[in-house]
């Protein structure tokens, strides 16, 4: 079983920044596609950003140019740097690790952006 532990959420004013972290133990994490998802109240969970084991990234259109996903394989950690935050970024953010047909989720961390 792989456990993902997220941190870094909180309350920030619009225009501010936050950095989310997600750490796990084990080789599975280092070989996985790592993603950040978010779910706002009353909405479906959506992909925010993902990074492959080789470092290729992709982003939702709504966060392109504002968010940066990165990973440190030596520390089994994936980061999401969120800049120029908007009230519509308010959601619970989840980390996910996927390899082939296996995937694991973190417990989620709340991000609230005030206007």
Could you characterize what this model shows?
- The protein has 115 residues and is mainly beta.
- Helix content is 3%, strand content 54%.
- The protein is built from one helix and eleven strands, in the order E-E-E-H-E-E-E-E-E-E-E-E.
- Strand 9 and strand 10 form a beta hairpin.
- The longest helix has 4 residues, at 27-30.
- The chain is globular.
- The relative contact order is 0.32.
Quick one: biggest sheet? 7 strands, mixed
Strand content: over 45%
**How many β strands by DSSP?**
11
Report the end-to-end length measured between terminal Cα atoms: 40 Å
Question: Number of helical runs?
Answer: 1
Query: What is the averaged pLDDT score?
Result: 94
- The computed structural class is mainly beta
Q: Which stretches are poorly predicted, pLDDT < 50 over at least 5 residues? A: none
What series of H and E elements makes up the topology?
EEEHEEEEEEEE
What's this entry about, in short?
The protein is mainly beta. It has one helix at about 25-30; strands at about 5, 10-15, 20-25, 35-40, 45-50, 55-60, 65-70, 75-80, 90-100, 100-105, 110-115.
